[in-house]
Amino acid sequence: MSGEHAPVAGLREPVSLLVDCDTGIDDAIALAYLCSLAQVELVAVSCTPGNVAAEQVARNNLSLLELCGRPGVPVAIGARAPLRIPLVTTPETHGPRGVGYAELPEPQGSVSGIDAVELWVEAARSRPGELVALLTAPLTNFALALRDEPRLPELLRGVVIMGGSYYYQGNTTPTAEWNTHVDPHAAVEVFAAFSGLPEERLPVVCALETTERIELKPEHVTALAAEAGCTEPELVLPDQPEGSRSTASNVLVRHVSDMLRFYFEFHRRYDQGYVAHIHDYFAASVAAGTARYRARAATVHVETAAPRLIGTTVADFRGLWGEPPNARIVSENYPSETFSELVRSLGGLGRRLGDPDGQGNPWKGAASPRSA
């Protein structure tokens, strides 16, 4: 089955998000984008180890939320490792701190004293039918939350997952995507929890075949800087020395540019061109209701036994296994639209943050988001 999902032009429905991430350059872009949306309430941001260790994820999230004008959002740590296998991180992809060349300011806030799993479960129980879960990390914390509260698929308004690759080359092994490869056992538990539910209750899965279409290029950085009101063009170019740092007049653009330069260099090193696949931004735009896409119901299997296939995801779209669907996999998206949205909204946030008349309030002159 398939269906078209599109935001209503000129009308943006409020959405309340529980975000779980392993920040990560593309997670960072996604989180900054969500901060730019007045209709998005960030209820909590939980930290899963993946791109970097959980403590570094938490520091990145605290810094980004403060930088982007959302200092009151709770940031919590849950698991410190995958369910059954050792943690593998990826400093070669995202840098030792997870944010490329960016040097984020030291956060003023601190990590919540409440465990991320407890925070998620209590939030879902207290606001049934209201919250959307956005999962851009290995699914460890969400699997643990489902163990504590098996009713989460009914309590949550919706679930969006960035993960997997279906009939598409993996980005970690020949067949496996990063998030499912880091904790395949957690992914198994998550998909099992949704088996047999009505199609509208199934998680929306943004897999590599559509997230790698969200291919950010140097001209997008230049456009973002212009939208943010930078006084000089922001040029991140392939012939510049590796490790160059941004001198942009806008603080948000400067950090985003330094993250993305590292990501461009990584992709070029692996023969993908001077580009950046910002997978998690696309998933965030789906969760926020700002992206147009099509999705197909399927039964997902995650491999956990065969050594060379660990983390491989397979989708049965035709019911050949005789098992009920447990996911809705995005089958079509519209990259040019998503980049127009990113430049407009994230650039607008940069302009507000860089406006001295705003006195540090990025929502001056705009509808403020609901307080978390």
What does this 3D model show about the protein?
It is a single chain. This protein has 13 helices and twelve strands. The chain has 372 residues and is α/β, with parallel strands linked by helices. Strands 1, 2, 3, 4, 5, 6, 7, 10, 11 and 12 form a ten-stranded mixed sheet that branches. Strand 3 (40-47), helix 2 (54-67) and strand 4 (75-77) form a beta-alpha-beta unit. Helix 1 (25-35) runs parallel beside helix 2, helix 1 (25-35) runs parallel beside helix 12 (279-288) and helix 4 crosses helix 5. The radius of gyration is 19 Å and the shape is globular.
What's the count of strands? 12
Low-confidence stretches: 356-361, 363-372
Report the C-alpha radius of gyration, rounded.
19 Å
Outline: globular
Measured between the Cα atoms of the first and last residue, the distance is 36 Å
Q: What is the strand content? A: 15-25%
Helix content: 25-40%
Mean pLDDT: 93
Give the topology string: H per helix, E per strand.
EEHEHEHHEHHEHHEHEHHEHEEEH
Features of the shown structure:
disordered C terminus; about 375 residues; two-stranded antiparallel ribbon; 13 helices; alpha/beta; about 15% strand; ten-stranded mixed β-sheet
Q: What's the short story on this structure?
A:
By secondary structure, the protein is an alpha/beta fold.
